[in-house]
């Protein structure tokens, strides 16, 4: 794999791990009523990131289209997480935005 | 879930099961040299179908884009499988083409 | 695939679809405070069911151990969902318990 | 997440990436006839590692059982990959054995 590819695989898996952790942590927050959209997007983002990393490592011909879609969801998830002050949300927002950048580079 | 949604989830999971079975069966064929592309696409198609079914059932806002991509890969995988006479390839081709149609309906 | 195998793959995917739908629906319920454990288990159950179905269709040597674990989580998830009156919870409980039975048969 | 948890999540995702890459590379080797078992185990190992990483990050109660199973498959996959001289097999063997160790620590 080229360096760009490796970076994106790594960014996707780090993002997935923070999204899973954020979803599970949101489910234990007192203010869960405000965390609905965050949990919803975390679930989607984590799973799409895992598939994107898999397709990159498999050398799929569909990597560009998939990375474009993954960038969109990472951006949305990062924007939502960024609205909340919990540490797990702020860390997750950072990982999502970094992954969105890495995916946009791959999609270009 | 609406009827269209249910049909597409079902088509995706049936397609995934036939692709997994086809990949594993191709790996045991004597003429494995000719089955490389079939195995490669089966692996991608099965995993993308599972994610697509998940996103539909989760009610994701990204369903249309994902179904468009899934339809493309199902079509390619079905076309490749259709070239081979093995029963598992022919059954898989049928499931892939059916899923491609269901995904195109969702993406429209 | 033998009939037992096919039945279990089907039960796993149906269970995954109901768990995804239940998780997304719980996230929109007014009484989300009571649905935390249901969402948490739905997420795990859906993803483990998908992997189990994949391993069965791939003909993995680890199918028995995986089905044993899948049966345990389906049972827990079905028991939790069964406590709630929402239609999506009741339907999900039924699918989980059916899948737990199918996985126990495979694990035996 | 504790340090043990983080280490295991990281080992699982690195293992998944090397297994995906190894499977795709094996499919392009001239001596594909000898790589059948390697491809078969790579596919299983990559997907189980991804699920295990997800369950750890979600804080699932089933982490120990899942890590035990993941360690078994990583060990098998690493042993098989280690038999082949291709760089992608040797790198993959190393990642699998490292992940097997990390999972055994979690399962203990």
Automatic annotation (TrEMBL), chains A, B, C, D:
InterPro entries: Csp_YhjQ, YHJQ-like
Superkingdom of origin: Bacteria
PANTHER family: CYTOPLASMIC PROTEIN (PTHR37310:SF1), CYTOPLASMIC PROTEIN-RELATED (PTHR37310)
Protein name in UniProt: Four-helix bundle copper-binding protein
């Amino acid at each position: 794999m080229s360096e760009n590819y490796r970076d994106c695989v790594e960014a996707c898996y780090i993002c997935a791990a923070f999204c899973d952790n954020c979803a599970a942590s949101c489910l234990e927050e007192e203010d869960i009523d405000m965390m609905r959209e965050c949990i919803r997007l975390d679930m989607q983002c984590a799973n799409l990131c895992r598939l994107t990393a898999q397709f990159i490592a498999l050398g799929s011909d569909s990597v560009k289209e998939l990375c474009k879609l993954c960038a969109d969801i990472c951006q949305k998830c990062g924007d939502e997480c960024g609205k909340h002050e919990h540490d797990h949300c702020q860390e997750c927002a950072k990982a999502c935005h970094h992954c969105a950048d890495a995916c946009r580079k791959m999609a270009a």
